[in-house]
Request: fold
Amino acid sequence: MELAGRRARDEAAAARSFDYVTVGHVTVDVMADGSRRPGGGAFYSALQAARLGLRTLIVTQGSAREIEALVEPYRGELELRILPAPATTTLQSTGSGAARTQRVLAWAEPIAEEILVDTQILHFAPVARETSATWRGHADFVGFTPQGLARAWNEDGEIVPAPLPSDQTSLSVLLPNSCDAIVISEQERAACAPLLAAAAAGGAVLAITAGAGATSLHLPGGEVTQVQAPAVADPRDDLGAGDVFAAAFFIALREGRSPPHAAAYGNAAAAIRIEGLGADAIGDRDAIEARVAKEG
Reply:
């Protein structure tokens, strides 16, 4: 009865059409000063989508009470669907950029339930090996930020690279059908190489971000082009900047912008995020458009 009731609630939630749905763990990010804030690609990307005016849903897994408390300041901007788990994925973070290190203090386990969606954009955003490619329903555009699948952690919780398998059977479980675009950082590109190759062969646009360096776009047909990231004179906090880029990039592509223009849009969104502190620094559409215009 409980399973049937949960499925009925999920069916009802999916029947409400959304513009942007993220799938992945909303995390508890424990900062160097001991403060706790919501994190994870699913959260940062969803909040950026919401601030671009899209009706947004996060499908996540963990302790409902803990996640709802973390995300409460943003509940007026997005909706949550929380699959129950004994714990919420909790990450201890120190440093920034390529020098950031993280430890897994708790893990909400894989999202095993088949995801039902009705959305314009579906974004798989794993942070700790939790998502599969399984979903049903309708999505006009499928985006993927796969770096969380290429992470493992030792018994002390220290995160280490875990390259993805290259056989087609394993890749078919990880790569969503009809994947339109992928965003990955240069730092984690090698670990995801087999999946990136499979996605490119299927016609996906690949964006390889490089912090303050140029974003590399790999287009269907083999063309590669570079889009310079804006200069940030006073970077304050870059946690989630790649996820902000991804959401803005996917949305711009879905709205009909060319890949180079979409990458410039994503770079502008990331720059705005880096210039402020925490999720409150994520910009809205007016701010991003103004930053794009400023960069020329």
